[in-house]
Amino acid sequence: MAVFSLYRPPPGSPAWEELGWTPDDYIDCFKLQKQAVYVPEGWQDKAYVEKTFKEAYRGFLEEGRQPVAFLRLAMDPAAVDVNVHPAKSEVRFRDQRRMFGFLVESLREAARLVDLPPSELDPAAFQREARRLVKGIKGVRTRAIVGKDLLAAGCGGIHGVGRCANSAPRLIVMTWAPARPKGHIALVGKGITYDTGGLSLKVGGSMVGMKSDMGGAAAVLGAFRTLASTGCRSRVSALLCLAENAIGPDAFKNDDILTLHSGMRVEINNTDAEGRLVLADGVSFAARKLKAEIVLDAATLTGAQLVATGRLHAGLLAGDEDLEDALVAAGRHTGELVHPMPFAPEFHRKEFASKVADFRNSVADRMNAQSSCAGEFIRWQLDGTKARYGHVDMAGPSTIGGRGSGFGPALLAEAVRRLA
Fold first, then answer.
1. Which of 202, 289, 350, 403 is catalytic?
2. Residue 138 appears among annotated catalytic residues
3. Which terminus of the chain, N or C, has less C-beta within 10 A?
4. What does each C-alpha distance from 140 to 63, 70, 216, 233, 398 come to in angstroms?
C-alpha cells in the first residue's frame, strides 16, 4: 500500500484510523515539491515515483504550498474489491486506479482553468470547457440559460453582474443520477471569469490575478466530473454561475436594485461584491427549481477569508452541525482543508440592512466577520426552502504563488459521498 499526499495527518488524526494508514504508507510530496499525481505502474520503487513526480509538474507546487488529495493505491487494484469510503459509502470499485485517475485529471483540469488568461476563458469558453469535460459520461444531462433568458428564469443576479460583457452571462446546469438515487445534492460554483470590480473598480493593482475568480466553478466542475464518472449513491447536480464583471455602458451600478431568483430584491452598494449575487441565484435555483435537498457552494468569495482561516484552509459556513462535520472530515480525508467560520445569522444579517430593498449586497461593518456575512447572504436565499446549506470560501487555497492549486474537486466529491 502507498499513499501519495501533500498533507500528512498529525499523529492521532482520524484519517489514520479511518483508512488504516501507517506512516510507512507515505511518500512525502512536500519534499518532492510536486502536486499529487497518479502513477500507474512502478510506484513500489520510491526512486521511480520521485522521478515521475518531478517530471509530471514543472515546479507547479513549491514546498509549503496547498495540499492536494490523498491518492491511495492498492498493490493489485484489479484484484481487490475496495470500499473507497468505508464510513458511509457502499460504492465499490474493482479498479481503484480508475477512480483516482479521474480525480487527479479533475484536479489538474481545475488548476488549468484557473491559470487560463481571461481572453481565453470567458463565460462562453468556460461553457465549452464544461461540455468537453463531461462529454461521453453516461447519464449526464446539461442545459445552459444564457443572456436575457436568465431574466426569464428569474436569475437577475447573474444577468446583472455579466450583462455588459462581450460574452453573455450564463447558468450551466448539469445533472447525473444512479439508477436508484438516494437524495439529491447540488454543487454551485462561482464562475466570475474576470473581475474588474465593475464600477467599484479595483485599483492599486488589486485587479491583477482576477482571472482566478472562477476557481469555485472549476472546483465544482471537477467534483461533478469525478462523481459522474465513478458513481455515487445520490443524484448530483452542478450549477456553474458564469459571468464577467466588466465595465461598459450597460454595467450594473451602485444604487441599482436587482431581483434575485429567490424573489428578494437587493440594493447594490458595491459592484465588487458580485460573487454573492451570482451564487444567490445558483443556490436558489438548485433548491427551488431542481429540488436539491443539500446545496453546497464553492467560491473565491472574499479576501477576508485569508485573514480568517489563512492560505491553506478554506473558510466553511454550514447551516447545521452534521453538515459542518462532514465537510471538515472530507477536508481532512482529502487534504483539501476547511475550517469552520462563525455562524450567527442573528448578528450578521443586520449588516445588509437597506431602506429601499430587502437588503444590500455589501456589509456596513467590514470588521464584523465579513466572510461569514458573505456566506450568510447566500444562505439567506434559501429561506422558505428545506434545503441544507454549506459554503466553502476558497479565496486563499485556490491559488498559491500565482498559479492554480487544483483545490476543491477532491473536497467536494468526498463531501458528496459522505452526505449521500
1. 202
2. no
3. N
4. 38, 26, 20, 15, 26
